[in-house]
Amino acid sequence: MTNEAPTSHLYMHGFHVSPESRSRLLSQKPAILWFTGLSGAGKSAIADRVETRLHASGTLTYILDGDSVRLGLCKNLGFSVADRHENVRRVAEVAKLMADAGLVVLVCLISPFRGDRELAKTIAGNHIFAEIHVHASLAAVEARDPKGLYRLARRGAIQHFPGIDSPYEKPTAPDVFIDTCSRSINEGADIVLNWLEQP
Ligand SMILES: Nc1ncnc2c1ncn2[C@@H]1O[C@H](COP(=O)(O)OP(=O)(O)O)[C@@H](O)[C@H]1O
Ligand SMILES: [Mg+2]
Fold it and tell me: Which of 7, 15, 64, 8 is nearest to 36 (CA)?
């Protein structure tokens, strides 16, 4: 970022209620579940199923979904590489704050660049953080094309589309891998919940 404000005159107040006290109050361990993958791979569908199950079992959750953050928090950002970096950075900071508040946060963002996802994990600090690669082949997501975006990207009607005219850097060692060509939405949710429940 080029327009960073100087931090030399910032003084952190020593607030008494800590992330640990909020976690105790809620009787839950906060976590950040970071779903990455091509558009149409199934990030939102699986996160929705995971959240529904966590909610039903009494866990306080929140989903930060790419499409919704772009209507508000990130509405001044486009799809250039620089704006994609900033989009991920902002969402990662919000996810960290929500985890400090005690929530299990599910982030659904294509987040195509490895470095951005590493930054998200760094921003998360000591919180439990899972990089979840929701994978489907390009052929499969183009066939699904739930939002009609691949058709537009192939026609050149939209630019900078990951997998088409912009890269998607696959995670090399994700914490969780789900191939949605061979796993159902429910099976995908099971895989994530099993990971979360491990000691
Ligand atoms: N096994 C699967 N896992 C996840 N989504 C699937 C699966 N099979 C089919 N789908 C469908 O694929 C689409 C994925 O869309 P979505 O979840 O919005 O993707 P993303 O959030 O990654 O862009 C949905 O319409 C979903 O119902
Ligand atoms: Mg989505």
Answer: 64
Q: Tell me: the pLDDT tens digits for 33-43?
A: 999 999 999 99
Annotated catalytic residue 23: no
Dist. CA 21 → ligand 2 center (Å): 33
pLDDT confidence of residue 164:
96
Cβ neighbours of 63 (radius 10 Å): 17
- Residue 45 CA, ligand 2 centroid: distance in Å: 7
Average pLDDT over residues 25-32: 98
In the chain, the domains with their CATH numbers are 19-197 (3.40.50.300)
Give the separation between CA 92 and CA 98, rounded to whole angstroms: 10
Q: What is the Cα–Cα distance from 147 to 52, expressed in whole angstroms?
A: 23
